[in-house]
């Protein structure tokens, strides 16, 4: 066939009718009630919505941290929940980067060693590991502080290390849940500008959950959840591509 399906061009992540029920005792709670989304490579997307609307549940399913009750998630065209646990863990390690609200760095390791960890798991050689970790730490503005431990860095700097750690494997998507939740407004703005810069320079696809509308308004697209469904999906038309 000569004609390609153009709608699939550049799609890095797609969900079809994604549902998640949590069972607690005799109660079944539907946290996601059918979410269908498509994201292009290089999009910088925010997910907003009231507490309990299903934002973290969605992010965990996009990141292969949990399994849906029904529905599909495709990452780079792969139906990820058709994989067994080992294959899924492998896909998570290769294709997905995570950044958390509380940074989740290893306290006794330097920034350099924290960032090298995901490469260690992937059996990348020592010299290459070091080179790549220094490159991403420089990209996040920490080139001069690579030997500091987390306790010797500010909150914003620790989050930069965590972003560098997510970036170092060159994943298809980076997922962040309230990554500026522990930061003051000035530092929050610096982190938003860093995400924009990385998105522009490396075409990294970001999906970030946030309660902060100042943050959401600086992304390309805002997905608003309510009661487990997409209430609004607004393009802000600021993509660099
Ligand atoms: N493990 C669980 N077992 C039972 N119910 C759960 C579980 N995790 C989440 N829920 C419920 O699913 C719903 C969605 O939760 P989720 O954590 O996705 O919300 P959220 O939008 O991230 O909220 P917040 O903004 O407060 O972080 C909530 O009502 C929550 O109580
Ligand atoms: Mg949450």
Account of the protein in words:
The structure is a single chain. The protein has helices at 55-62, 85-95, 111-121, 126-139, 155-167, 185-202, 213-216; strands spanning 11-24, 27-40, 44-48, 70-75, 78-79, 96-100, 173-177, 205-209, 221-226, 229-235. The protein is α/β, with parallel strands linked by helices and 241 residues long. It has a single domain (6-235), classed as 3-Layer(aba) Sandwich (Rossmann fold). The strands form two sheets. The chain has a six-stranded mixed beta sheet, sandwiched between helices. Strand 1 and strand 2 (27-40) form a beta hairpin. The chain is globular and about 50 Å long. Bound molecules: adenosine-5'-triphosphate and magnesium ion.
Categorize the overall geometry. globular
CATH class label: Alpha Beta
Mean pLDDT, to the nearest integer, reads 93
Q: What's the helix count?
A: 7
Instruction: List all distinct small molecules, including ions and cofactors, that are bound in this structure.
Output: adenosine-5'-triphosphate, magnesium ion
Give the total of beta strands.
10
In spatial order, strands of the major sheet run 6-7-8-3-9-10
Describe the sheet with the most strands. Answer: 6 strands, mixed
Helix content: 25-40%
Write the CATH fold name. Answer: Rossmann fold
Tell me the number of structural domains: 1
CATH architecture: 3-Layer(aba) Sandwich
Evaluate the radius of gyration. 18 Å
Span between N and C termini?
A: 27 Å
Strand content: 25-35%
Structural class: alpha/beta
Looking at CATH, the homologous superfamily is P-loop containing nucleotide triphosphate hydrolases
Uncertain runs with pLDDT below 50, 5 residues or more? Answer: 1-7
